[in-house]
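User: Second chain of the day. Same drill as before.
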Amino acid sequence: MCTLQIEEEAHLLHICGSRSPSPRPRSGDLSLFDICWDDVLIPKVAKYLSLKDLFNLRCCSRVAQRFAEASLEIRAELHLSGNNSKNIEIAFKVLARCCHRLEVLHLACCKWLKDDLLLPLLKQNKQRLRAVNLNECVNITALSLQPIIVECKELRVLKLAKCQWLTTGAVDALTLHQSNLVEFDISHCGAIGERCLIIFFRKLNKLTILSLANTPSVTDQVLIQIGNYCKDLEHINLIGCAAISDYGVRALTVHCPRLRSLHILRCLRITELSLAALRQRQLFYIDRPPPPLQDVNAVAHNNAYNLNDFYPSDFLVY
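Assistant: Same format as last time:
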């Protein structure tokens, strides 16, 4: 290697170590990495590079590697949902080591993800995380959820759909430690009990988006508690909740004035008796189209009871 190349490499390594401006070398041309990292390259350039770009850059030289890892250190969002490419576990270990300021973490459908990979990343970023998406992460356990529940004090969004490892105990821990969630998804989680959900929704009174699709333990009693305590609710997904009926939907109609959408496909016990009032709201969305007018009149004629007068005899107070 010639003297010129040695001097340039030494100069670049000095910049990478200090991450501050330094005098131009006496010989050689100005390179990209001579530009100040903290003030220019990382905030003005690196933010436009994708993860793929950063990892490609990381392979170019030792200086490029240090620059890429310095850029990852201040990255606020990590989106890997559905990424099951070859050697992704190796790349994730690099991310877990370098990322220290993550606020948004999307790892949905990552079949390769396990506790030993996820826990180091959570440990590095637990103070800042606001949104965590672990939908369909089937190979992790409730052990990974523990630092999220206990230590992520800024958490506002948590998605755990199709996580069969989610238990009543984990939801009880959420009830104790997380009261500021605004979006919550536990669709297809069959291990959670009705009583657990009733207590949980009494605590989470800031929810605006809620998905309970195909969760067997969702009953009218659960919806009544949601209506009583989640006054700011705007969107709710109840697709496939076969145990709910008009009485539960009526509770949402009366007590959730900000409700803007309702998903109730495959909820056979829900009829136009409860949906009619919601259809009268402006800009309100229901995923079930209204039936012909004659069908509505027939239902009203065949049902003599009044929803306003209903009080279920088996209602449980916990």
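Residues 101 and 117 are 17 Å apart (CA to CA).

User: Great, on to the next one.
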